[in-house]
Design goal:
Blueprint (H helix, E strand, L loop, with lengths): L23 H10 L9 H5 L3
């Protein structure tokens, strides 16, 4: 009976998303100027019963 050692570390569950083709300054301006989500748009509030 031969046993193999398990690889160390955590397995990657998701792949990295594609890089955004823009400058970091422009991306930050978009993030800062986007209005916040309403209560209807938050997943954790939609999934809860109460």
């Amino acid at each position: 009976m031969t046993t193999t050692k398990r690889k160390r570390g955590r397995q990657a569950k998701r792949l990295m998303p594609e890089p955004i083709p823009d400058t970091p300054v422009n991306i930050m301006c978009i993030i800062v100027n986007t209005p916040p989500k309403t209560d209807d748009e938050w997943r954790y509030l939609q999934d809860s019963d109460g």
